[in-house]
Amino acid sequence: MRHDRQLTAAELDSFGAELDALRQRTLDDLGEPDARYIRRIRAAVRLCCWSGRALLLLGWFPPTWLLGVALLGLGKILENMELGHNVMHGQYDWMNDPELRGTRYEWDIAGPADFWRHTHNHIHHSYTNVLGKDDDVGYGLVRLFPEQRWKPFYRWQPLWVTLQALLFQYSVAVQHLRLDQYVKGRMSRAELRPLLRQFNAKLLRQSVKDYLAFPLLALLLGTSAAAVLVGNLLANLIRNLWTFTVIFCGHFTERAAVFPPSVLEGESRGHWYLRQLRGSSNLTGGPLLHILTGNLSHQIEHHLFPDLPARRYAELAVEVREIAARYGQVYNSGRLSRQFGTVLRRIWKYRLA
Q1: Domain presence at residue 246
Q2: pLDDT, tens digit, 9 for 90 and up, residues 89-106
Q3: Residue 161's domain spans which residues?
């Protein structure tokens, strides 16, 4: 349960001004260390992915095959979380590096980057945890808050969540299609058709790369195509499960709040910041955890400052926590095991009316 103090209009203005000032100080301090960091992450992604793929080409020999799966899975996690997600937020546009331009980056995942830039960067970050506006609240499949209207298929949501976790990259890709709107007659076939073409083209490229091109290369080299195919499947599964866990822990823990659409009426900058704080959850841990989560272990700071380089979130968290305490606000943070445990309890509890 949350126990946030209600803020007056003057306090909200002051709260927003302090966070605006913190953001601006960080922007003014960006420079070569930030650029060097993201270039190293890009190099690490390439090293892990290509090393992993090379080891998989050696066949089923247990040590090299397992290491190949682990390295490829790690490379995909880093690319998805610390590189792709953060670059697409425009966190490194100031570098003027074409490969790190937020509007141009295409990531190694089934969903087109353009889909993500709209559903995540625009819709989710504008309407964080606002019921009926933020599609990420349950992704249309899961009831996680009592404020969500109950529907009969929620009875089976532990099954839906399991499937979503296993196939998370496809779940994210399909979200932008808004197939529910098409089924309800709120989207025409003419509107859906270009989205499907874009979706199918990206899905085909990813599938050919992971499940056809590299297995065929193994055949040409006289090694096991099955070893490469299964290795790619497992690497994608590792990435899917990890990404699902991190995202659900950032938004749907015991202390995360949801809001009615009325909260958007006349919303000030300070109130927007307050909504981001109350709707987000952090994970405690060391530097390795932060890197593997794309620094979404600092989900609060990410929602407050989505366009700041994520490597800065750990230092920003110190001041954000202090500001939150002065204004009587809960700073929701805890171990991964604890936070994920509260998510699982929500999934189980709110499956029933």
Answers
A1: yes
A2: 999 999 999 999 999 999
A3: 9-349
